[in-house]
Write a structure and sequence with these properties.
The protein has helices spanning about 10-30, 110-135, and strands at about 35-40, 60-70, 90-100, 140, 150-160, 165-175. By secondary structure, the chain is of the alpha+beta class. A 6-stranded mixed sheet has the order 1-2-3-6-5-4. The chain is elongated and about 60 Å long.
Length: about 180
């Protein structure tokens, strides 16, 4: 798909593109295993583990726009009548999914050390994703003219359902402008 270079972007595009770069940098700095994919994602669901090709055995990370809504008082939704001048707040998802430990042979549960190591890695990933949102974005200014400071709020962290051999989790974040 070749887009016209004169395409008018919503201000959130520049911000989530930067957030995606920050996430990938923070995960690399955390020194966990490399990922099959790290970047922007579109759609209603997180990316599958196999996005990087067959046999992705290290994981994926993503930034995804979830919702956008009128918000005169960031990050609260508008409870009245919105106008053209009503600011917009954006909900984003910052996530990391890794392969989940599996039980070996006839064992009922995965090995305790494998679970310990996986939980340590998931906690490291969670910390890196939080840093990407809270430490990188407030330093960015978005919009052509005038430049405006970005408002950022961290929401809840939600673990992925340990299904289909993947685990990890996602932060909810809110982005707006001062």
């Amino acid at each position: 798909m070749n887009l016209d270079p004169e395409l008018v972007d919503d201000p959130i595009f520049e911000v989530i593109a930067r957030l995606s770069d920050c996430l990938c940098s923070e995960l690399a700095a955390a020194k966990g295993p490399g990922l099959c994919y790290c970047g922007l994602w579109v759609g209603a669901q997180p990316p599958p583990l196999g996005i990087g090709g067959e046999g992705c055995d290290t994981g994926v990370a993503w930034v995804r726009l979830v919702t956008a809504y009128p918000s005169p008082v960031f990050p609260l939704p508008d409870d009245g009548v919105s106008t053209c001048a009503t600011p917009i707040a954006y909900e984003v998802e910052i996530g990391v999914a890794r392969p989940a430990p599996r039980a070996e042979a006839r064992a009922m549960f995965p090995d305790k050390q494998a679970l310990f190591d996986a939980q340590r890695l998931y906690a490291s990933d969670m910390h890196a994703a939080k840093r990407a949102l809270l430490c990188c974005l407030p330093k960015v200014q978005a919009g052509a003219t005038p430049r405006r400071d970005i408002l950022v709020r961290l929401g809840a962290f939600q673990p992925l359902e340990n299904a289909a051999g993947k685990s990890g989790g996602m932060w909810q974040g809110f982005i707006g402008w001062a």
